[in-house]
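ok trying this again, last paste got cut off
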Amino acid sequence: MELNLERPLLFFDIESTGLNIPSDSIIELSFVKILPGGEQRIKTWKIKPWDYEKEAQRPIDPKASEVNGVTDDMLVNCPRFSEVEPEISGWLEGSDLAGFNSAKFDLPMLAEEMERVRLYCKREVSVNLHDARMVDVQNIYHQMEPRNLRAAYRFYCGGEDFDNAHTAEADTLATYEVLKAQLDMYEGTLKNNVEHLASFAPQRSIDFCGYLVKGQNDEPVINFGKHKGRTAAEIFRNEPSYFDWIQKSCFALDTKRQFALIEARLREERKKPLGEEALRSAALNLKEHFNG
């Protein structure tokens, strides 16, 4: 079954120097863009992983090389991410996103590279990845038939392994084929629209790594460490230094940016005069305190 799309759906897959988002980099990025009507466009970049602080090529973890088959010498003459970012952003513009387990790693890794362009190249990028809906085919698969991409391809697409597994382009194309086959197999259950398909990965996270999530009334809530479950506003009132600690610690740049945006909003709200109801509440609290 072909996809029923109102706007382009961009399938993507990443190979990287390792699995630590703040300290690793993209070495291969593949896009398969499906336009409304079914037209398919493919683009793959080989990227020199760049450490912007050391101004040097970032080495690939040997364990990552064992999986993706890419070695440092293969990337010496490739462009850095910052050099191809305008082209990448052009492909992303106006599209929703799709991938296999991409919400947990590929999307945060892509966002990290975008933030590095902002921070180290002092250049604004034209897309905001937080605006795109994300269809994670793995989440649909795990709810329907829990396994992995190779097993998913065998199960949904005819029983054979696909060629060149663990290359970004092969994995991306396989993911696209799996989603179409899922729509065929679960025709009575799955709706053929991106909003429904994206609902299999409820997007409650504010940052891509999930350290901030939406609580009641979409209020930002800390989702890790000693303050897990407490609102960001409460921490800002009682321990404002926590926000400074976030910026100085080893968190993904997108996580730091979302904390900074929340802090800026809370500082602005602090400057606003209290409304009548808030003043009445504050007066009652003071009265109870001093009478007590």
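PB: full thing came through this time. The chain has a mean pLDDT of 92.
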